[in-house]
Amino acid sequence: MPTPASWHAVPALWPHRHLLDLERLTPDEIRLLLDTAALFKEATDGCRRKLGILAGSTVVNLFFENSTRTRTSFALAARRLGADVVDFAAASSSLSKGESFIDTARNLEAMGIDAVVVRHATPGTPHLLAKHLDVGVINAGDGPHEHPTQGLLDIFSIRARLGALTG
Question: Which end of the chain is more exposed for a tag (fewer CB within 10 A), N or C?
Answer without folding.
Answer: C
